[in-house]
Write a structure and sequence with these properties.
single chain; about 270 residues; alpha/beta; Rossmann fold; 2 domains; 9-stranded mixed sheet; two-stranded antiparallel ribbon; 8 helices; 13 strands; about 30% helix; binds flavin-adenine dinucleotide
Length: about 270
């Protein structure tokens, strides 16, 4: 079984959103200087899901695929240290500034080129743009089933089984392989690489493919190939005001709060 895990490199998500600069004219977001690039949170959970499958089926092969700049090699290395077998870095100036369709096009074309893939695992959403569309987009372009937002991913006799997280519970769904699964934080903590694994990861192979290697061109990856138009990018103004409740005890503060809410006809 060959499993691909899609891992996106994102700015460290611990940085407060207010420290990012939004250039409304250029419609761009710039992270503060010196912010570390890290694997997207849900994507290391994707690696964990793949590793749990490999724990049961040791001859399964896990390839980590990341599209991004050369520096995205670091998130591949982290995933390799978690136990994955190989890395695939998709890097090319044409891969910058893509919309959701073009991202799915690049990732799905790489999966097609690999030819022997049984399962693609993505995070439920990337923690920078939070679009949550790439997994389903890859499945659509490959014409494979997509089982999304999983807390448990199993493969038995060529069937993918995913326990999905719903608003008010869980459901288990199945589909034949090849298929795409996306995973959520309910799956559990990703394993932490040990020092020896980090050293071993340095020796693991990372293949690099460009747009030309994938047979993709500027017409597909440039502005004419976009399916989404960014109309406006801005920080919404908030005029929320905060009033601290007076009172000597928590009970008194609660009574004052209740009074205020009643005066405002909110209760
Ligand atoms: C209006 C608008 C303008 C944008 N402009 C820009 C821009 O100028 N520059 C720019 O860089 N982005 C831009 N983006 C973001 C870009 O369109 C998104 O990256 C794309 O739509 C995919 O969404 P996402 O990154 O939120 O990934 P999601 O769809 O949330 O990702 C889900 C999963 O797919 C996989 N995945 C996604 N991306 C990658 C990747 N690169 N490598 C490996 N796996 C991946 C991961 O497993 C991830 O967890 C813009 C987005 C919008 C909405």
């Amino acid at each position: 079984m060959h499993i691909i895990v899609c891992v996106k490199q994102v700015p460290d998500w611990d940085i407060p959103p207010s420290s990012f600069k939004v250039d409304e004219a250029a419609k761009r977001v710039t992270p503060p200087a010196g912010v570390a690039a890290v694997p997207s949170q849900f994507d290391t959970i994707g690696v964990e899901a793949a590793m749990r499958l490999k724990d049961k089926t040791p001859d399964a092969k896990i390839t980590i695929m990341s599209m991004g700049p050369e520096a995205a090699r670091d998130v591949i290395k982290h995933s390799l240290a978690m136990g994955a077998d190989e890395g695939l870095l998709l890097t090319d100036p044409l891969f910058e500034d893509l919309d959701w369709y073009q991202v799915a096009l690049v990732l799905s074309t790489a999966v097609k080129k690999l030819e022997d893939v049984d399962l693609v695992i993505c995070g439920r959403q990337a923690v920078d743009w939070d679009m949550g569309v790439s997994g389903s987009g890859i499945a659509e372009l490959l014409d494979w089933p997509a089982l999304t937002i999983g807390k448990d991913v199993q493969v038995n006799d060529g069937t993918l089984s995913v326990e999905r997280v719903l608003m008010d519970g869980f459901e288990t769904v199945e589909a034949p392989l090849p298929a795409v699964a996306t995973v959520s934080n309910e799956l559990g903590e990703p394993r932490y690489p040990k020092l020896q694994q980090i050293m071993q990861a340095a020796k693991k192979q990372v293949t690099i493919w460009s747009a030309a290697d994938l047979g993709l061109n500027e017409a597909q990856l440039g502005p004419d190939g976009r399916k989404l138009t960014l109309e406006r990018l801005y920080v919404p103004q908030s005029d929320a005001q905060c009033e601290m409740m007076e009172g000597d005890t928590p009970e008194e503060m609660a009574q004052n709060l209740a009074k205020k809410l009643a005066e405002a006809k909110l209760i």
